[in-house]
Amino acid sequence: MKMIKAIIRPERFEFVKKALENQGLSGMTVMPVEGRGDQKGISLQYRGGTVQVDLIPKVQIEVVISDADADRVIQAICESAKTGKRGDGRIFVLPVERSIKVRTGEQES
């Protein structure tokens, strides 16, 4: 199994969610996060002055899937999250040793 962690622009979340649903994935964990990457923050005009925003709001999506589904899920996220501008996000792929359902104790490896 693999865990896909995607950090994307908040305004692209609904597009990504729909793309994952189209791939048959309904379970996901979503959380607001802040960070910075290559773009190193942004400058905003505020009350006649320039304000440097160092950490930019993003959305992190986590899904756990089978190894066989990883490439198509990554492709779906890339296509739906992409704007073509800096700050579109990043995807991390992590191995998952096993998963246990709390209610039933059912395990997957």
**Main beta sheet strand tally, sense and closure:** 4 strands, antiparallel
Query: Whole-number radius of gyration?
Result: 17 Å
Report how far apart the termini are.
7 Å
What level of helicity do the residues show? 10-25%
String of helices and strands: EHEEEEHEEE
Strand order of the largest sheet: 2-5-1-6
The number of distinct helices, counting runs of at least 4 residues, comes to: 2
Give me the CATH architecture, please. Answer: 2-Layer Sandwich
How many domains comprise the coordinates?
1
Structural class: alpha+beta
Q: Report the sheet-strand fraction.
A: 35-45%
Q: Please write the CATH class name.
A: Alpha Beta
Describe the model.
The structure is a single chain. This protein has 109 residues and is of the alpha+beta class. It has a single domain, classed as Alpha-Beta Plaits (2-Layer Sandwich), CATH 3.30.70.120. It is built from two helices and eight strands, in the order βαββββαβββ. It has a four-stranded antiparallel beta sheet with strand order 2-5-1-6, covered by helices on one side. A two-stranded antiparallel ribbon has the order 3-4. Strands 7-8 form a two-stranded antiparallel ribbon. α1 runs antiparallel to α2. The radius of gyration is 17 Å and the shape is elongated. The termini are close together. The model has no long low-confidence stretch (mean pLDDT 92).
